[in-house]
Write a structure and sequence with these properties.
The structure is a homodimer of 458-residue chains. By secondary structure, the first copy, chain A, is an alpha/beta fold. Chain A has two domains: 265 residues, Zn peptidases (Aminopeptidase, 3-Layer(aba) Sandwich); 156 residues, Glucose Oxidase, domain 1, CATH 3.50.30.30. An eight-stranded mixed sheet of chain A has the order 1-10-12-11-13-16-14-15, sandwiched between helices. At the A-B interface, helix 1 and helix 13 of A face helix 1 and helix 13 of B.
């Protein structure tokens, strides 16, 4: 009988404790969101970052100054310690403003907005003038063969597919033109490539991004062209297939530079040697203020620390806020971080990345095993009141990706994606495109996820 | 045995038909969204409406021209018939640009951005100069009493509460200052009121809106002030409680004007006398282009018709697209529509309103009985792939609200609310604030809801 009563008591105690925990979690969730929504810290600091240090591509002075600012700011928020992880970065320079000019005997001269892709070689000061051949994909190139391509500029004009609801899928479906198009075209003797900008917006901004050369083929200059001008070029080509295109760029690969990741820690009270990493990348393209990509992710990450400090929450595990360097060009920051995790045998219980902009959050993607997924999905109801409606399985991000090989559970915040590629990698990614509340909701949601992982483990 | 086989066959047939229906519904859903996302009709027509007919407050020439445009456009889309519901509207005119000036012996003169609230009387050409008393709510007014208020300007400075996730709740919590503040203050002898703009943004735009007089008290002039200047005024008052405020407006109530709702129909093939109404309001404030409020709702509604026509779907019930006139001032369009529904004994099986902006849709609110809610909630999975994650019970909208007394099930689309009040009722509600894809997703979702209601009934 006593045994029976003990069992019943234990069960009741368990149920009570569980209920109390759930109440506490709801109340903590409300605290994170109300502290974020009633303080302009995030939007003010985003403004400071993107207006003082725009064009902070790795290797630039702006990147170095942004690192200094982040180090100072993380200390001010109250990190227990802030340190640097030294690394070397490539330093690609754009040089003078690029030129693009259509010369048609039928239609005269038309300037088009182009810019060099990151990592591209230059055209030389005399530029390149050649006929243009428009293709949609690599299969088409192969069919055309060297006899139709040699000596020409290849124009990759496959648009992102607007039918995808999640715009990152549309991006994924068009990105290989930009990353690999130059070498694919060089295979058949093309002398330059011009790529339709990866955006769903019809605008006059060229949207840049990194490209890679396959060293088996000649390195030819690679450009992107605004969607507006891509349509114009395509229309003119239909009427005058012999028109010439003039392209000029003076980009250059400079010597590598010293740089670093900046890491801030809030020490764990029980497991100081077990880490939860939260990060974004502090570099951005040199034609952009980098407000959504990835100023927002930097601010989200920093504000997690601010919210823990403001609420006086002492985590059990050490929380690390990482300002990753060089996501855009060669991911040296990501590689360095993973290298040090391995070298120092650090145990990472989770890593969370914010690199999909600062719009209204819709949820998280989880690159985790079944058992962790089943655990985390139970937390989702805590987030539902704040618009986080999806916890889906999928990839995480470029900066925490290298931690996957150590079995670290990876998470990424998923803001509403509809506008993201309107801004991405272009001069259109400015401060005014980020909304205060949408940004605040991101910080609070990540902070809540960190809190739950820290409290219950994975 | 034969009976048994028949029963089994019937069950199998039912299951098969049900499965086929679900497949068809998914496929129709995909069609609505892909047709919307691959056609710039919505954004181009929104641009036309808001750039050609801004400031289309009821009674104005712009409102009348917008009605003509909508009639022509609905015919072009292919409505079976388009007709007008004649009605009279009030015609309130703002007059010259309002003036607001703080005069402080300590701090000198400071201009502040103010504008008259809709329906307000004017100050007369000499304006009003008086001391200011700041309050948060009506209870505070009552405590202060006539001895502290008489002869002064009452400054209602209760901010919208940023802690609400859904910003319409924050709006609801602050709106009575604007709608009723003047008469509440006039009770105690105030000579004018100035209301903190109803926005969560810290900006320099005055956000107007309608106010009502209680005829038991003197009609005193009512203004709104931008949040930036409300903070400034409040700060100065803390240091100089005797400062004076000068307010000037020349608004006037003109004779009523003839106007109308414009109604377009797609005739039902089986139940032509049973209606599904979809609408937004074509009027907007006279200080605004009315892009989100409610250009977006007008375009959403029109595009439902366009999508049905493009997909060649012939509804069983008659679909009505309604351009409601005068939502902002006196809701004459809404009243007229309901009056005619009653007079003509029309059976309305559902009404759907879009009047919460053109941002990314998050779901629908349903003002329906339990049985309808339980039916509709089963359709939600069709919408989930397109970001419509909530079908919640709640109110619908001002224009379809009067149909509630006839038992009509009411629905409203719920776009993401985070940015909405940044624009609402101000000069900041311009075309560039609406995103093409976000708008398209709204049209497609409403069209899908209409399709499901038409197919399965409620």
């Amino acid at each position: 009988m006593i045994k029976f009563i003990s069992t019943i008591s234990l069960i009741l105690f368990y149920l009570f404790a569980n209920c109390q925990n759930q109440q506490n979690d709801s109340s903590i969730a409300a605290s994170f969101f109300s502290k974020a929504l009633t303080n302009d810290w995030a939007i003010n600091n985003l403004e400071y970052l993107v207006t003082n240090f725009p064009k902070r591509l790795c290797g630039t002075k702006a990147a170095s100054e942004a690192l200094n600012w982040s180090e100072k700011t993380l200390k001010e928020i109250g990190a227990d310690n802030v340190f640097r992880q030294d690394l070397m970065v490539v330093h690609w320079g754009r040089g003078a403003q690029e030129k693009g000019l259509i010369k048609s005997e039928l239609f005269g001269k038309n300037k088009i907005n182009v810019c060099a892709l990151g990592n591209s070689v230059s055209t030389g000061q005399n530029g390149i003038t050649a006929e243009v051949i428009e293709v949609q994909n690599f299969e088409e190139l192969q069919k055309l063969g060297a006899e139709n391509i040699k000596g020409k500029i290849v124009f990759f004009n496959r648009a992102m597919d607007p039918k995808f609801f999640y715009t990152f899928q549309a991006y994924g479906g068009a990105a290989n033109q930009r990353t690999k198009g130059a070498s694919e075209a060089a295979k058949y003797g093309a002398i330059a490539v011009i790529i339709r900008s990866l955006t769903l917006s019809n605008d006059t901004f060229p949207h840049t991004g990194v490209m890679r050369y396959d060293t088996n083929y000649a390195k030819i200059p690679a450009f992107c062209v605004s969607t507006f001008h891509a349509d114009q070029l395509s229309n003119l080509l239909k009427k005058d297939s012999k028109l010439n295109l003039y392209l000029e760029s003076s980009c250059i690969m400079l010597p590598e530079e010293k740089s670093c990741n900046v890491v801030a820690e809030l020490k764990g009270s029980e497991f100081p040697n077990e880490y939860i990493t939260i990060g974004g990348h502090i570099d951005c393209w040199d034609n952009s203020a980098g407000a959504h990509d990835d100023g927002a992710g930097i601010i989200h990450s920093m504000e997690v620390l601010r919210l823990f400090k403001e609420l006086g929450i002492k985590p059990k595990h050490t929380i690390r806020i990482v300002m990753f360097m060089d996501e855009e060009m060669d991911q040296r920051g990501a590689k360095k971080y993973a290298e040090l995790v391995e070298k120092n045998k650090e145990k990472h219980i989770a890593a969370i990345e914010s690199d999909r902009g600062g719009a209204t959050p819709t949820g998280f993607s989880l690159d985790v095993n079944d058992s962790i997924y089943n655990k985390v999905i139970k937390w989702q109801k805590l987030f539902n009141n704040y618009g986080y409606y999806q916890f889906i399985r999928g990839g995480s991000g470029v900066d925490i990706g290298p931690l996957k090989k150590f079995g670290v559970p990876l998470f990424a915040i998923m803001p509403d994606s509809q506008r993201y590629f309107d801004y991405h990698h272009s001069a259109n990614d400015t401060f005014d495109k980020v909304n205060k509340r949408e940004l605040q909701l991101g910080s609070a949601g990540i902070a809540l996820l960190v809190y739950m992982i820290d409290k219950y483990g994975l």
